[in-house]
Fold this sequence. Notes:
The complex is a heterodimer.
Chain A: H1 2-5, H2 11-48, H3 64-74, H4 85-101, H5 120-141, H6 145-176, H7 181-191, H8 194-197, H9 199-212, H10 224-227, H11 237-261, H12 273-276, H13 280-301, H14 307-335
Chain B: H1 2-15, H2 19-39, H3 43-68, H4 72-77, H5 79-102, H6 110-115, H7 126-137, H8 139-160, H9 172-177, H10 179-182
Amino acid sequence: MVELLDGVIPPLLWRVLLIVLEVLAIVLPMLGIVAYLTYAERKVIGAIQLRKGPNVVGAFGLLQPLADGLKLFTKEMIIPTQANRGVFLLAPVLTFGLALAAWAVVPFDEGWVVADINVGVLYLFAISSLGVYGIIMSGWASNSRYAFLGGLRSAAQMVSYEVSMGFVLVSVLLMAGSLNISKVVEAQKEWGWFIVWQLPMFVVFVISALAETNRVPFDLPEAEAELVAGYNVEYSGMAFGMFFLGEYANMILMSGMTSILFLGGWLPPLSIAPFTWVPGIIWFALKISAILFFFLWARATFPRYRYDQLMRLGWKIFLPFTLLWLVLVAGALELTGKLPNMGG
Amino acid sequence: MFAAVLVASGVMVISSRNPVHSVLFLILAFFNAAGLFLLLGAEFLAMSLVIVYVGAVAVLFLFVVMMLDINTAELKDGILQYLPTGAVIGILLLVELVALFGSWGFAPDVEAIIQSQTPPIAQATNTEALGMLIYTKYVFLFQASGLILLVAMVGSILLTLRRREGVRHQKIADQVARTTETVKLHKVQTGRGI
Lengths: 344, 194
């Protein structure tokens, strides 16, 4: 097909068109998945709390997310008079856009990736650290005390947990020997899944992911009892919808990161016949779903952390522990001679 | 284009009247600098710029500026007062830069230095090449900068450290240890209540 269209469309335009198609191929399924994640969340929590969950709209309530989306679309968007208009409108767009932009470097299967860049892991880390801006900007621009407090809390929380997350990343990358995400997954072919070697880091990473995405038990930014709804209290209609979608897209992204770093991405659990027949993308989706289920399970199970406990956990426990583990990993790799050998 | 936006947002940083907008423009400037690095092929530097400056430093800036609650009208009045000092410093810096560029020259053995780099840079990826240089040739400078940062950190902690009497800390180990005396555990059957 490429040869057929050669000459009809100029090559530059053709490349741009291809990129646009690739982006659409990720974004559109992503939106659907996000919508049905909210459905899954309500069903799972319903089951845990001995309720039925959504069951009225469509069979088993399957059309509920669509109905909710439609409702959000048709609602009026209110901008508070004292709000800072530009920043107020920019914040939800930023949250949502960043959550989607990160998927550019995630490989869904061998070679199924939009941009296979050499510093992919750093790119993911950078994008996830930018997520805080959407929240802090919305909190400030709303010109409301509740929103502002929620924004500040969440910013402090995300910055704190990023530090230990960085150390977790480094100790995984020491074993993988590359910042390229595809190579990180490839390295787990030789090593076996990194969760086997780095189980404590896996635990730290999942807990930090909960904190990064502001999920229970770390959902202090939207502690209903104290802050009404936190940073997004002044938003309505589709602006609120974008925050909502962005938050859930971030959850999926964090699960994707966990499965790439620790659960072998698209690799099957064992490289023998019945497992290798299943395409890699199915394995990847299964792993993501398992971690997402854990996220939902945690929401139904745990009470909220107090703010000082949250900070204590981040700075006094995770940070020293990950640092110690990093030194241990580096030492063990050096002693066994398994340290990745670079050029010189 | 990145350079143009960079300069424009740099101007906006100092000219915008709302300090929070200034910080937001500063973030935009950081982004464009990262974009320039990317165009130069220095992807590792670009990413670390975004992570360190945009992801951490600018957040703290934003934090402080939002908490300060500065009256912008007062700031506007002060601008004439500080203008002469600022202008003098600016001119001094400009003169220094011009003098530096005037005497710019390559060291005589520059060709040899370029040749002697350990791995062929063109083959190694960005990250590897940077690591090779920092941890071999410039290892002492690298350690020294780390030490400077450590001193700065210790200093700022010392400046803000206050000891207060009568603070009651939560002892988590004690709390966890007291299950049997005060708390009664029930084994609840699934699907029933208590």
